Amino acid sequence: MALQRQFNFFDKVELKDPEDPTKSPEIFQSIESNVATSGRGHMVVADRSGVVHIIDKNLKVESFLAYESGRITHMKQLRQRNILVTVGEEDNAVQVIKLWDLDKPDRVKTGPTLERSIRVQQTKDTFPVSALAVLENLSQIAVGLANGVVVLINGDLMRERTTAQKIVHQNDEPITGLGFKEQQKGALLFIATTSKVLLYNTFTKHTQTLDDQGGGLGCAVMNEASQELAIARDEAIFFYGADGRGPAYAFDGPKTFISFYKSYLVLVSPPNITTAASRQFGVNASAVSANDTTRLTIIDTLNKFTAYQATFSQGIRSVICEWGSIHIVENGGKVYRLDEMDTSVKLDILFKKNMYLLAINLAHNQKYDNASISDIIKKYGDHLYTKGDYDGAMGQYVRTIGRLEPSYVIRKFLDAQRIYNLTSYLQELHSSGLANADHTTLLLNCYTKLKDVKRLDEFIKTDSDLMFDLETAIQVCRQAGYYEHAVYLAEKFEEHDLYLTVQIDDVKNYEKALAYMRRLGSKEADKNLQKYGKVLLTHLPEKTTQLLVDLCSGFLTKAGSPSPTPGTVTPAGGQPGLNNLPFAMAGSPVTANLTANAISSPRVISQTVFQPKSKGGQGDSVKYSPPSPRTFMSLFVDLPSYLITFLEQVSANRWPSPSAQTNLTPAGASAKSPTNAGGRPNSIGSVNAVTGSKKAYDSTDRSSLGRSGLMSDQDMEERKAVWNTLFELYLAHNNTGKESMLGAADLYKKMRDRNINKEKCLRLLNDTEISYDMNHALVLCHLAEFDEGIVFLYERMKMYTDILRLWIGRDDTTKVIECLRKYGPLEPSLYPLTLSYFSSSPGRLTSATPELLKVLDHIDQQDLLPPLQVVQALSQTSVATIGMIKNYIGRRIEAEKKERAEDQKQIQSYRQESENKRREIEDLKTSARIFQVTKCSSCGGSLDLPSVHFLCRHSFHQRCLADSADRECPKCMIEQRTVADIRRMQEANAEKHDLFLSELEDADDGFEVIAKYFGNNTMAFAKLIDSSN
C-alpha cells in the first residue's frame, strides 16, 4: 500500500538545558549514548562505559554503574512493573542479563537494587547479543546472538534461583529482531534474521517460516498494541502476525531504525550511503560523519499517510518516545521534541485540502463522538454537492441520519430536482426508524412521481417491522390511486378502519369488506358495521343482514375460532326455524303456505348461518356479550323487509320462546270456542272460552316470571325494543294501500302477506314473557285499524265493554253476539249496551229479534239485570215495543212476588226465634232453675253426690269433670267458644277499615257486602270517627 499523502502533524521543538537555556541538555552533551529505552515516566540512556542514566521529565539525571568491565548493548523498560532489563558484557565478553528494580534503591551503593543476574550460555565462542525480547511477567526472555542463535530463558526470573536456558533456533544468519506475542498457553516468539522471518511456539516447540526475507539490525520491532512484528526493508514496511505476513506499506529507501509511538511508525533513514552498505548487519554510527543528513519519517499506520517528515543534519543517535512526545537525540547532543498537533488542528488542515474521508477516519481513530463525526460527514457531503456529485453527496448525507436534521438534506435535493437521490435518503431514514409522517408522505410521493412500482412494493410489502407512519402511507397510496398497496398495508398491520375505508369507499369491493368484517370478531365488527352498515346494506342486503344477525345473536367469532353449528337462515316468513319465534303460528294454515310461497320479506342467503346454540355447544369458549339490535335499526331505514328479517332472527336466536310451542288460540281469531263442560256449545254465557284462556295466560305468566327472573334488566329492555319495532313493522306491512290499482295475482299476494303479518302481530301480542306497554300497542293497533289486535289487548286489559263498543262501532252484529256470549258473564254491563244496540234501528231489531229474545231469557235465568234497567235500555228509542218484553216482565214480576213472600216468611221465623231467646234469658235472670236430672251427662250413670249442675240443664258427677279453674259444661263448651271466637273476630274486623273497603271494591254487589257486615253485627263494634280530630 503506497503512502502518497504527506502531512506535517507534529511540531518540532528543541530542548534546552534547565540550568542554561542557551545550551542543549548537559546530559546528552556529556555522554555518548549507546542504547536507550523509556517508560514509566522516565528515559533510560546507557553509555559505552556501562553506566545507566535515568532522566526524568525535568531532565534531572540519576546514574549508576551497571557493568564494570563492558558496555551495555540492550535495555528494556517493562510497562507493568518498574523493572529495567539490561544486557551487557562482563569479563571475557560474557553476555549478562541483569534485572534492576528501579523502585528499590540499593542499600550499599548508588543506584537501584539488582534483583537478578543471568549469564547467557553460549556453546563455544562468545558472540554479541543482537536482539532482546522480554515478556512483561518476566517468565521468559529471548536473546538473539550475532551467530544466528536464539536462547530462550524460562522460569520465574525474579524469584527462582536457577533458570532454564534453551536454544530454540540456530542458523548462520545473524538475529536482527525478536518479539513475544502472549497467548493463553505459552507464547509465540517472532524471530527475524537478515534473510528470514520465523515464528516459534514456546508451548508446542514448533517453528514455522513466515517469510523468506528478513530485515536489518534495528529494522525489526514488535508493535505492543497489535502484537505484530514490523520489519522495515528498503522497498516497504512489512507486518507479520501469527498467521503470516500481513499488510505492507510501500516506502522506498534504506532504513536504519524503526520504532512505534501510539499508532505511528517512526522510521529513521540513513545518510546518503550506498544501498549495499545499508543492507549489512547494521550501520555503524561511527561510520557516519557528523555532517551527514538523516531523515526521520512518522507514518500513521491506521490512516495510511505520512504524518511527519524531517531531516536532521547531524544524524540521529536515539529516538526515545516518552511523556506524550517523540524525542530525537542528534549525534551532536542536540535534543528535539516532536509534539503531536491537536486533532482539531489536524482536521482543519484536512478540511482546507478537502480530504474529508481522511478527516472522518482520523476522527474515528481519535474516538470522536458521533455528533462530531456526523458534522465532518456533513461537510464532506456539502463539498460533494457543491461539486455536482449528487450521488456521492447523498451517500454521505445518509451516514448522518440520526444526527443531521433531515429537512436540511431534503431541501437541498428538492431544489436540485434530484428525486431519485431523495428517494434513497428517505428510504434510509425509514429504515432507521427516524421518519415522521411528512417523510413517509414525501417518500411515497417520490415513488408515485417516478412510477417506480417495484421500489414501492419493496418499501410497503417488506417483511420487516413497520418503519413508517402507517396511516400516512395508506392515505398517500389512496390519493395516488395505489389502492392495492393501501389495502395490503391496512390488512397486514390490522388497521381495520383504513382497510374497510379503502375497500368500500375507493375499491367498491363490498364482498371483501364484508368477509373481512366477519373475520374480525364481534368487537371490531360491531364498530365497523355501525360505520359502514348503511352502504353495505345498500349493495349487499342479504349478506350484510346475515352478518348483523350473527353479530347480534352472539354467533360471530374470529377467524380460526370454534364456530357454532351451521344451520339454515330463516327469513321473515314460514321457514323451518319459524316455530322457534314467539310470533310464529305453529300449525296454522298460513304458516304451511309460507314454506311454498315467497313472502314480503326477502330471503337472506349466506353460507355462514347458524341456529341457536344449545348449552355445552362447541362455541361456548368464544362467547361474547352481543351488541344491542337497536344500534343497527337505523341502518335499515329504507329496507323495512330486511329489518324484519334481522329482528326476527335475532329474537329467535337470543330469546327462543318456549311459549311458541304452545298453540294458544289468539283472542278475536275466527276459531270456534271449545264445548262448555256444563252446558251447550256456543251458548251465550259459556265462560269456558274466556276463563280457559285466562287460565292459560295465568300459567304462562307464572312461568314467564320464573324465566324473566334469570334475564337481566338490560336484556329485557333489548327484547322490548325488538318487540316494539317488529310490531310496528308488521302493522305497517299490514296496511292495504291502493288495492284497486293491483292485479289479481298481486292482490292475492298482498292479501296473503297481510294475513301473515296479522298472525305475527297476534303471536307477538301473545308473548307473555315480555311486559310490553299495552296502551302503546293499543294505540298502534288503532292507528293501523288492526281489529284482532285491539280485541286481544282489550281482553288482556279486561276491557270487555270496549270490545263490545268496537264491534258496535263496526256494526257487526255477529261479532257483538259473540262478544256478549264470551264476556257477558264477566261483565254484566254488556247486556244493557247490547239491548241498546239491538233496539237502535228497526232493521237491526228485525234481524236480531231471536237473539234479543235469547238475551232476555239469559238475563232472566241468570238474574243479571233488574227489569227496570232492561226497560230503560230498550226504551232509549221507539223501535222496541212492550209486546217484545211482555213475557219477560211478567216472569220477573211473578218471581219477585214469590221472593218477597219467602223473605217475609223468613223474617217472621227470625223474629219468633229471637223472642224465644229473650224470654229464656230473662227467665234465667229472674227465676230459679230446678235440676231434676238423675243421670250423669258424661258417663250415663246414676247421679250421686257430689254432683255439678249447669244452667244449660246438663249435670255431671264431680269426678267426671276435669279439674280446671273455669267451670264450663263439657257438652256446650265447644259451641260457646266458637261463638266467643266469632264475636272477637267481629270486634277485630270492626277496626279493619281497609279490609272492608277492599271487599267493597272487589264485590260485584256492594250492597250485599254492607248487608253482610250489618248482619254479622260488625258495625255495632265500629268506633265512631270524630271528623274534628
UniProtKB/TrEMBL annotation:
Biological process annotations from GO: endosome organization; intracellular protein transport; organelle fusion; vacuole organization; vesicle docking involved in exocytosis
Domain RING-type: 936-972
Family according to the record: Belongs to the VPS11 family.
CHCR repeat segments: 397-545
Keywords, in A-Z order: Coiled coil, Membrane, Metal-binding, Protein transport, Transferase, Transport, Ubl conjugation pathway, Vacuole, Zinc, Zinc-finger
Name of this chain's protein: E3 ubiquitin-protein ligase PEP5
GO cellular component: CORVET complex; fungal-type vacuole membrane; HOPS complex
Pfam families membership: PEP5_VPS11_N, TPR_PEP5_VPS11, VPS11_C, zf-C3H2C3
Catalytic activity entry: S-ubiquitinyl-[E2 ubiquitin-conjugating enzyme]-L-cysteine + [acceptor protein]-L-lysine = [E2 ubiquitin-conjugating enzyme]-L-cysteine + N(6)-ubiquitinyl-[acceptor protein]-L-lysine
First-listed, main subcellular location of the protein, grouped into a coarse class: membrane
Gene Ontology MF terms: protein-macromolecule adaptor activity; ubiquitin protein ligase activity; zinc ion binding
Record's compositionally biased regions (Polar residues): 655-665
Enzyme Commission number, as recorded: 2.3.2.27
CDD domains xrefs: RING-H2_Vps11 (cd16688)
Known partners and oligomeric status: Component of the homotypic vacuole fusion and vacuole protein sorting (HOPS) complex. Component of the class C core vacuole/endosome tethering (CORVET) complex.
Membrane topology per record: Peripheral membrane protein
